[in-house]
Amino acid sequence: MAELGVDSYRFSTAWTRIIPDGLGEVSEAGIEFYSELIDELLRNGIEPWLTLYHWDLPQGLQDRGGWLNRGTVDAFVRYADVVSEALGDRVKHWITHNEPWVAAHLGYGTGYFAPGIADFGSALIASHHLLLSHGQAVPVIRANSAGADIGIAIDCRPSSPASDDPGDVAAERLHDGVRNRWFFDPVFGKGYPQDIVQVLDDRAVYETRGLPFVQPGDLDAVAAPIDFLGL
Q1: Are 48 and 42 spatial neighbours (Cβ–Cβ below 8 Å)?
Q2: Which pLDDT tens digit goes with each residue over 6-20?
Q3: Which of 56, 90, 138, 180 has the greatest CB tally within 10 Å of its CB?
């Protein structure tokens, strides 16, 4: 990479390599693996950009419900604390999550990715816990990595209506709300898009109106200030 003139390298740490079951002991060998990688990058003038989560959830956490279990948020924040405390003296660019839409909707909405659950309501619960874990991890990383830039990488799919027909316009608005605004809006302090919440109520996606999985203070946590947005 140095011979090619590469001056930065984005990579993902594996939660499973560092805390194999997601909850228990930290693997010092796992930490050392990434520590040696970072040292070698820096020796070659290459700036490390570290992503904490790229869809590799420890099986021990999945056995407890995965991202449908709010406890996974706490486990992720601990993982972020462990990694940033060990590596934050050298890593100054942090990405909490890579493409949370993929983890939530392909893992819990369509079942295309692990854990193979196909339920739209579950996908929205998983997405909230992913975003909440991002927001709660940001101040932890800041405390461990002085002067670091911290962000999140959100995949988006811009769209436009197939025609001016009101049905097409409404369909595009629905797509944009679920695919894009559902993630961008809360990260930037706007909360979840209310037009989509209304659709959920109209279609009785949950037994109660609104978003029963959102607790007081959650949206403030999700909106923790970030330094950059990865697209």
Answers
A1: yes
A2: 999 999 999 999 999
A3: 138
Q: Which amino acid is at 192?
A: Y
Exposed (0-12), middle (13-18) or buried (19+): which is 25, by Cβ within 10 Å? exposed
- Classify each residue of 163-193 as buried b or exposed e, where b means 16 or more C-beta atoms within 10 Å of its C-beta: eeeeeeeeeebeebbbbbbbbebbbeeebbb
**Pairs from 198-202 (Cβ < 8 Å, separation ≥ 24):** 199/174, 200/124
User: How does strand 149-153 pair with strand 228-230?
Assistant: parallel
Give the burial string for 215-225 (b: 16+ CB within 10 Å, else e): eeebbebbbbe
Can you tell me the distance from the alpha carbon of 13 to that of 26, in angstroms, rounded to the nearest whole number? Answer: 13
- Residue 34: pLDDT band by 50, 70, 90 thresholds? very high
Distance CA 15, CA 132 (A): 17
Per residue in 65-84, pLDDT (tens digit) is: 999 999 999 999 999 999 99
Taking the C-alpha atoms of residue 149 and residue 77, their distance in angstroms, rounded to an integer, is 17
3 state SS of 93:
strand
